[in-house]
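A reminder before we start the practical. When you read a complex entry, don't treat the lines as separate problems. The point of joint prediction is that each chain is placed relative to the others, so the output describes one connected object in space. Small molecules and nucleic acid strands, if listed, are placed in the same frame. In the example below there are three entries. Take a minute to note the order of the lines before looking further.
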Amino acid sequence: MTSIPTSSLEQNTPEGAAMPADTTKPPKPKRQRFRFLANGKAATGIVILGIYILFAIIGPWVAPYDPGARSNDLIQPPSAAHWFGTTHLGQDVFSQVLVGCRTVVMVGFLAGVVASILSVLIGVTAGYLGGATDDGLSALSNVFLVIPALPLIIIITSVLESANDLLVALVIGFTSWAWNARVLRAQTLSLRRRDYVEASRATGEKTWRIILFEILPNLTAVIASGFVGTVIFAVLSEITLAFIGVTSNTTWNWGTILFWAQGQQALAQGAWWWFVPAGLAIAFLGTALSLVNFAIDEFVSPRLRSAGKTKVKTASGRTVRMRVGFTPVLEAPAHADARPVPSINPHGATPVHRKETAR
Amino acid sequence: MKYLLQRIAFYVFTAWAAITLNFFIPRMVPGDPVQSLITKFQGQMSTQAINSLYVLFGLDNDKGIWGQYLDYWKQLFHGDLGLSFTFFPTPVSEVISGSIAWTLALVGITTVISFFLGTGLGVLAGWRRGSWTDGLLPVTTFLSSVPYFWLGLIAIYLLTGPGSFFPSSGGFTPGLVPAWDQYFIPSAIKHSLLPAATILISSVSGWILSMRNMMVTVASEDYITVAHAKGLSDRRVALSYAARNALLPNVSGFALSLGFIVGGTLLVEIVFSYPGLGFQLFLALGAKDYPLMQGIFLVITISVLVANLLADIAYLLLDPRTRKEG
Amino acid sequence: MTTSEPVLEIRNLNVDYGLGPQAVHAVRDVSLTLHRGEVLGLAGESGSGKSTLAYGMTRLLAPPGAISGGSVIYHPADGEPYDVLSLSDNDLRGFRWAETAIVFQGAMNSLNPVHKISTQLNDVLQAHDPKMSAHARNARCREMLKLVGISPDRMEAYPHQLSGGMRQRVMIGMALILQPQVVIMDEPTTALDVVMQRQILGQLIELRERLGFSVIFITHDLSLLVEFSDRIAIMYGGRIVEEAPATALYKDSLHPYSEGLLGSFPALRGPRRELAGIPGSPPDLKAMPTGCSFHPRCPKAFDPCAETIPALGHPDTPDGGTRSVACWLHPVREPVG
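Here is the predicted structure of the whole assembly.
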């Protein structure tokens, strides 16, 4: 029920290029946006995400039944009439999943927006201003980082009596900004030392203008990655809250479905259709978001990209994996412009003794 | 040494912040929860217990907020976290001390195993990039997106039931008395297997992913090329050079994500009705048992802080750059 | 000191980034010979392929680098010469450092930050001579540190406790610990200040005279090469465009690009020259100009330059036997490599 921050953004200072300086870099792509979508992970993630957003919008309209309406088909397995079967009250699980999609996506994105705004405000300010402001804001984010967020969210929402979706989203947003703020602070610190930012400052540019036009555009990927990460966390937290019955059960989300399934002994009755669809819906949404995040990560630090073709045929006729430390010697003949010519050894051609491989 | 003192100071500060937060949260509770409790347990509550609850909830309005805060600290120092509503009149501290060992054993041990296992697999996946280990990534991504508790539900559905080896709920066979004997310990271990496996499966993938990414990042550092140029064995380069350095950010990541992980694992306890803090919290939520909720939150926070400190010490031992010269 | 006996011969080496039709050819058909005991300088702007050449010939180039042709013939002190590129991984491990050691560009990042200096020196000895006793290893490590002017009691220090210059000395000591025949130095001193640069290079040349190894010295700083190397090869767009004894190149360079490079730093000795850079920027290896890759920037370009690639060959000059150039301005007597 967590999202361990797996982003490597923080460790990746832009200066940290470790390739030899002579390494040819491919020419800058003209339209980076399209290149991002060309990444298989990004494309898959965005397509799945699009389907979820579509169902979040149209779900309640296309749902075949009222998710709360009772019927006489109690605990029925999936059938033509009820694709995902029915609950102990004869409610249609498929309709519940469809209707629940809207709440889940809405709360997730709202919490993500709130947390992103907070993290940008706090992280960028701390990184840019430095000094005592930085110390104070960093301490604040570190405190929020180490206090276990989920128990805190549970306590706060259980104390607030009428915890509706909006309130839940706000509580999650206000408690889960710290990781992103930390990453943004580190990035801002390194950006601030760049020449063009120094130049802007030297020419007396206003601070807010520098932050808005020089710093923020360069943080887009980091902010996006933080946003997606928070959405994952928010979705899981929100479903957890509903599952343990803290939030009101009048609106449907996937956690509510699991709450009733658990409470009504769905497991003991073998009613797998009651809890499997909701869980898979969460898992696929989470996977789609993670894929988008990996793609952003790879976009920012190209080393993480899995290098397309990694198996090559070598001169010795074996197939090897491309790896650090042992550059492959290709079997392919030399370039068209390579000419077979004698060496410049003044003693004449050196006899080449091809050393046999030991063993 | 200076680094360690700084960290300790920070954790003390965080503990203070958490306790202060804990002081303010109940003041948001609408109505008078203590009054309803008094009516419920008519005449059974001592005046002292009632007073203690009023202090806890900030309902002794004759005192200013500052006075209330001081009283709250005074109570904490006496280990008084109030009385549990659910287990009335048992003090919260007693309820917690009865369940904390269960959580420590289950969550503590599995989290550490998960970290080491995931880090090990991540080293492999990062070093052998482009080999079959890349196939692990989609699976791990999917597993890390599954909520812990749902995986627990599936495990219960698939693996427990009449005649199954795995019990579906509880921490030990009902009727046994908790003790270090040959009846209780095997039963406790048997009951912990499924919850532990659930936590392990869903948390290990995060470590695999982050360690893999660190390995890939570190693999392009100059000192790795130097290590290859020196003609060292592949194993030596992978472990002593790449993994040894990639481990550092993963350890600090471990400290930082402890808070996330603990939250998730508490839910596994709920699904399995495992008698730890998470399950107690669940019961407390159902009964609107505010003192117990707060007490559990406080204990969880302090435990996470202590675990963080331990991770910091580990980092200190691993990275010579944080050690002070001489 | 310098003999005409070769120790390392690079023949028609081609190095690519990437595979198949998208591959970028970073080193094209390079042939170069390093003689026993000499310091061979390799100069060129960034992107000229000089580092790629060094990493390629030692097979240390990271993915997606690949060697697409040629051979690197190594002549051991005793025994038959063999092709380094056809060694098995295991033999290559044995060859590395024992025969060819490298001092890398990023002096700061060449040392593993989490291990002591002693551990990193010991590593090499242990990998290449597992039977050596711990005591003997330790003595050898101390000796090497002393050789490069570092007090042996810094053995137990971590890299972050040493200054940049000390770290680079440690790297040089480490490179010499197995007494290799060839030391490749890739921009070894770029991160250091000028005084430190000269001090370390001077020390290296002195060590070379004592121990008799050969050096391939790669830098973009031609003034350093003129001072410290015996012969200089200039690279542009992945090819060698001129190769000559250091003094000959400095006094009388033939290729307009060499001239441009020499004109971009102040003369060390002798009369003042006018400083001039080379207009334009290095070519994009993905879209190389036709003909001579330097022709779009060349002040002396004429008809054939845009059409046909000039071959590297001995020029028709009195000292033509000792130097070579690839330029249409200089008729080639006899092609090389």
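Discuss with your neighbour: The longest helix of chain C spans residues 194-211. What might explain this?
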